[in-house]
Task: inverse folding
């Protein structure tokens, strides 16, 4: 059964309830397993002289065969995965690499360049702003690394792992970035049209998931390489590992610009290429519209005085886009996008004076417990929420109980672990699922502090 049919079945069955990406556990697992088809390892021939390697790591790498050499677009995470893709490419051409192109500076697209070389030093193309993918928030790298491990489920057991939404779960990561080669040719802000190895090729600046992104167009073959501004999932307009604000409006505009080319094939940064002019162009138009719709709805809500918590539950994709297989929330999430847009445009404060100087967590927990009739009563409510499979409420109550001097910290921890696993089982959004399970494992093993940060 196709992925979008599974989602429709889940909705009709009443599977989506308290969270936008929650369905019954068996449906969630079927959906994630079906999504695996998007990154099954293999070489996809997208045109007579164009080949894309899918599933050799999380991202895609592509080869364009020219007269006296080849062009490589993106180079995977490290030389181990890249060398396997390079070897697979050699079935189609043994010509030397004349150029390498980085669509943007995320590590899974630039770390394996050295594996494609065979003596010659090729030109390496990137944008003027190359290297700005993660913004300037290096000061918080320590916590971002922890959250990165959770988001991608890097430490989950085989039985817990499904995938990463737009990538397989198990990838070779120990050589991260060891094959990176710095750019030697800068693509100007106005873009670039040139010929490499006899291949007419165009570089178009297209900020979106990163500010340093560009997309590549082959005018004769009508093949478009989208980088990470398009892949088969609702886009990750905000990554829960922690990212600087991604300019959502620019992202939508960049994808709309791609659609104007009416490609015969669109090659995403992750997941399978989409072939056929109608299918490829429609996918890009829908993608741009989906991003813009979430942005516009959020802005309207902001100007109506609504806060991020309310908007995160109200904003939805337009009905005619909800069953599109490339817009199902396997990777990005509409509620996360809404919160990111709100914070990106207005900062943390929601305009409600109640939240201007909220109570500190320990004092608030004490008052909630008193309101419930005491710590024992609050603890009973927490246990009842878990028994009733009201997992989000159980989590929130556990976070109050943990602050109480007379609270049962061990019980609160146990409830939180079980509630996290209950939520994870219902999630078809891979980052959410991975984060829930990873955090539960950290709690259970005692890796986290007493306040569970």
Result:
């Amino acid at each position: 059964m196709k992925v979008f049919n599974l989602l429709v079945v889940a909705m009709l069955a009443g599977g989506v309830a308290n969270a936008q990406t929650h369905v019954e556990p068996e449906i969630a697992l079927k959906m994630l397993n079906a999504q695996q088809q998007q990154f099954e390892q293999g070489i996809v021939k997208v045109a007579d002289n164009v080949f894309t390697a899918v599933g050799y790591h999380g991202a895609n790498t592509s080869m364009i065969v020219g007269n006296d050499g080849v062009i490589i677009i993106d180079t995977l995470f490290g030389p181990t995965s890249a060398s396997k893709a390079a070897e697979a490419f050699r079935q189609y051409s043994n010509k030397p690499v004349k150029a390498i192109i980085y669509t943007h500076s995320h590590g899974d697209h630039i770390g394996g360049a050295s594996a494609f070389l065979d003596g010659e030093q090729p030109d390496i193309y990137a944008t003027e702003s190359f290297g700005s993918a993660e913004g300037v928030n290096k000061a918080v790298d320590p916590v971002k690394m922890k959250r990165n491990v959770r988001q991608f489920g890097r430490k989950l057991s085989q039985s817990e792992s499904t995938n990463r939404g737009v990538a397989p779960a198990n990838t070779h990561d120990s050589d991260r970035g060891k094959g990176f080669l710095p750019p030697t040719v800068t693509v100007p802000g106005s873009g670039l049209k040139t010929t490499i190895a006899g291949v007419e090729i165009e570089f178009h600046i297209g900020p979106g998931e990163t500010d340093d992104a560009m997309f590549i167009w082959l005018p004769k073959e009508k093949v478009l390489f989208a980088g990470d501004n398009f892949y088969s999932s609702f886009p990750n307009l905000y990554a829960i590992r922690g990212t600087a604000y991604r300019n959502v409006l620019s992202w939508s505009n960049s994808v709309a610009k791609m659609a104007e080319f009416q490609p015969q094939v669109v090659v995403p940064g992750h997941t399978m290429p989409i072939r056929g002019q109608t299918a490829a162009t429609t996918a890009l138009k829908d993608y741009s519209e989906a991003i813009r719709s979430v942005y516009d709805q959020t802005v309207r809500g902001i100007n109506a005085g609504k806060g991020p918590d309310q908007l995160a539950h109200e904003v939805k994709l337009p009905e005619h886009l909800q069953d599109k297989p490339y817009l199902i929330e396997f990777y990005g999430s509409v509620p996360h996008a809404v919160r990111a847009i709100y914070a990106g445009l207005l900062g943390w404060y929601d305009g409600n004076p109640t939240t201007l100087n909220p109570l500190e967590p320990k004092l608030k927990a004490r008052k909630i417990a008193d309101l419930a009739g005491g710590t024992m009563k609050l603890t009973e409510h927490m246990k009842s929420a878990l028994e009733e499979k009201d997992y989000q409420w159980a989590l929130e109550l556990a976070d109050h109980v943990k602050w109480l001097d007379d609270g049962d910290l061990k019980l609160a921890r146990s409830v939180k672990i079980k509630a996290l696993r209950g939520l994870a089982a219902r999630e078809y959004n891979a980052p959410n699922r991975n984060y829930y399970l990873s955090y539960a494992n950290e709690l259970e093993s005692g890796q986290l502090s007493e306040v569970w940060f």
